[in-house]
Amino acid sequence: MRGFLRQMWSNISKLDLFLGRRLPFGMRIEMVLMTNLGDVDDVEDGRYAKCAYVNFLQCIRNMIYKLMYDHDDVCVYVTHYDEYLQLSRDITRVFALTKEQWEYEKSVRDGPGEDMDKFYLVAPWPEEEEGVIAYGYHGAELRQYIGERWGLKEALDTTTTYKIREGRYWPRAVRADGRG
After folding, report:
1. Closest CA to 137 of 164, 104, 174, 110
2. How far apart are CA 10 and CA 5, in angstroms?
3. What is the CA radius of gyration of the chain?
4. Which stretches within 14-137 are classed as H helix?
5. Out of 30, 121, 130, 176, which could bridge 77 as a Cys pair, Cβ 3.0 to 4.6 Å?
6. What is the pLDDT of residues 35-93, one digit of tens each?
7. How far apart are CA 89 and CA 148, in angstroms?
8. For the whole model, what pTM was predicted?
9. What is the DSSP letter of 25?
10. 73 to 22, 26, 48, 69, 95: CA distances (angstroms)
């Protein structure tokens, strides 16, 4: 999964080549996230599916904020489609950082690849031990992670419930051992 996410992040990052040119005034860009999460309410598969979904959001996160705040008059929409959810959903409001928060996050970031290395959610299968992980966050931290970093109450929410707040998950990653 991590290799797949890194490749997805790398492909989306190539949009920077397009963004380096002056964008047409009033440009509208829509990102469509297509998933096949299955039954997210299933006890065994649900945690894995929700972690995978949040990891997908993390892959497109920086590009969405670049489009929203680093370019004048670009309108960004994000749509999520999953056959199990039946209807496509507008999830644009999941990307709720203010311009000031985005500027602050960019100022403390270690580098462009930090998002996939440090903010990855590792969702072990139920039979695996809840052991120490070498990178990212343990899937058991999902609820705290989405609340602090994304402002979400549930992984599949279409809008934020909480304010994004500084702490363990935003704007920098803090590992379980306390190191960044």
Report:
1. 174
2. 8
3. 16
4. 15-19, 43-69, 99-108, 114-118
5. 30
6. 998 888 887 788 889 999 999 999 999 999 998 998 877 899 999 999 887 767 999 99
7. 22
8. 0.86
9. T
10. 11, 5, 37, 9, 17
Nearest to 101 by CA among 61, 161, 57: 61
The DSSP secondary structure of 49-77, one letter per residue, reads HHHHHHHHHHHHHHHHHHHHHSSTTEEEE
Give the model confidence (pLDDT) of 2-40 as tens digits: 677 778 878 888 887 777 666 667 788 899 999 998 888
The region, left, alpha or beta by phi > 0 then psi within -120 to 50, assigned to residue 73 is left
Q: In terms of C-beta density within 10 A (0-12 exposed, 13-18 middle, 19 or more buried), how is residue 42 classed? A: exposed
Please tell me the distance from the alpha carbon of residue 151 to that of residue 103, in angstroms, as a whole number: 18
**Hey, what are 130's tokens?**
């809840």
